[in-house]
Amino acid sequence: MCGIVGYTGPNPALQKVLEGLKRLEYRGYDSAGVALTLSKGQPLFVAKKAGKLNNLENELAAKHESAHSGIGHTRWATHGGPTDENAHPHISNDGKLAVIHNGIIENYLELRKELESRGHKFASETDTESVAHLLSEHFKNTGDLAAAMREICQKLRGSFTLLAVHSDAPETIVGARRNSPLVVGVGAGEHFLASDVSAFISHTKQALELGQDQVVEVTPDAVVVTDLTGQVVQPKSFEITWDAKAAERGGFTHFMLKEIFEQPKAISDTLTGRFTESGVKCEELKSINLNAKRILILACGTAYHAGLIAKYAIEEWAKTPVDVELASEFRYRKPVLTNDTLVITISQSGETMDTLMALRHAKELGAQTLSVCNTIGSTIPRESDAVVYTHAGPEIAVASTKALLTQIIALQVIALYISQEKKTLSTHEISKLRDAMLSLPNQVEEILETVEPLREMTRGFKDSTSVLFLGRHVGFPAALEGALKLKELAYMHAEGFAGGELKHGPIALIEAGTPVIAIMPPVTSEISEKMRSNIQEVKARGANVIAICDANTEVDASHVIRIPSTHELLQPALSIVPLQVFAYEMAVARGNDVDQPRNLAKSVTVE
Ligand code: F6R
Description:
six-stranded antiparallel beta sheet; Glutamine Phosphoribosylpyrophosphate, subunit 1, domain 1; alpha/beta; eight-stranded antiparallel beta sheet
């Protein structure tokens, strides 16, 4: 979950590296650093600083225009606290070699002991520093940085993306990857290496994907990829379809707000090409057995909530039983899976370590695998039998918003497609659902056009100590999502409950004035009355109820947030939007860093 970038070419490297790091800062922001090759055989220029990237930038201010290759890193601390010493790059004792790393080197203590016994002096508490010393030893023997990298990768255990530079090869950057992401940007007479394409999309749209256990050597004019035995391999090339503008804030105060407002377009992009006059299209599922006896959805965090919501649609429409499990739990148990189980993983980044490991676990057990993902070329879709991309565009804010809505929609498209193929829904039913889905972009737009009173109301709750979220049926996972967003952004106690569970314990939390956000189902739902009773139960104990409901629903609450009417199963794509705005506004009101909340990183590529 760190951000990694490298540049080699005719332009000043510092500028390109810092620009890339700004785009990758969402991946980690505890500390940052750069290493630049100034002249052949001389010590590298290295600068690193604890704290956000601008601490480092202030220190560097337009230095070292002369360096034409360099690497940079933005860190999310795992081994060793966020200090200047622990920030990357880590350097060899002669100062000529620098390494940056994303991931965890599991055998670093062993390596460190051996390296110290051979006289290497360590300056940090990190696992990464062992790699720098080990690589420098191997480079001394071979004089070839890529060969040295291949050798040491065979000695490393764990997950890593590594980039290294050595001043004896001033134009060269060497990278390696195992279970962590690394892509190459191919420009005209210049190359980039980065954790993801957002680091270089303003310079090139041509990219190469690196496979597992591969080493890449780039100079301004060449890219050579090999496996760990030194065998040259042909990397897969792809074109980046994201627009550089899409990764910038575009006039919004925060990326999160921009991404909330991008949701109508994101949903519309997810739905593009999915419907024909005669039904639903999902070519990606052609190779998948849609008559699977069972579907198991695996994901983490917000993506897990998308899975919980999708379960209702898959079971109701396609009549296939669905279980939804946290990927981080699944991978550590002994599940019973067979080849008639379809495992669906959901991931915005496509790199979440727990989800990736759960996918591998499921594959080993013989299940078919499908992923729902936003990031083209990332590891999870690459390792799945089939993939449906969500097309949400780059999501930079750490808190996931448009990725979630598009995951829900993509999964519901999959549910409709399975129903069509299994003939569990009639053509008429599918067309009605299609029309309802196609209305969602405009309906989300409508919510966003009338969001000001909600923002003002939210500020009134800024000193609350706890907020509870209540829902039933698909409103329950929506409530879980509302609570997760508030925790991660506003640092407040927040919990989501199923309405029916209130009296089994959680109602004891209600005190005079406790804000309770209740998600009301459409009035036609069989649980509408039940939710109304839940509101009365918490009101009777002093709760301050904020109800989210459609225009046809009458409700007795202190504040009512209206959303357009839709099919009950599609409602979370609308009811979650005010919850996102509530969490956003609360974080702003409490003076928190909205796009980079404390202790979090965008993509969790460590266990
Ligand atoms: C919360 C959030 C996280 C992610 C989770 C999975 O706002 O963003 O809970 O949903 O870390 O990430 P992906 O979808 O990249 O696998």
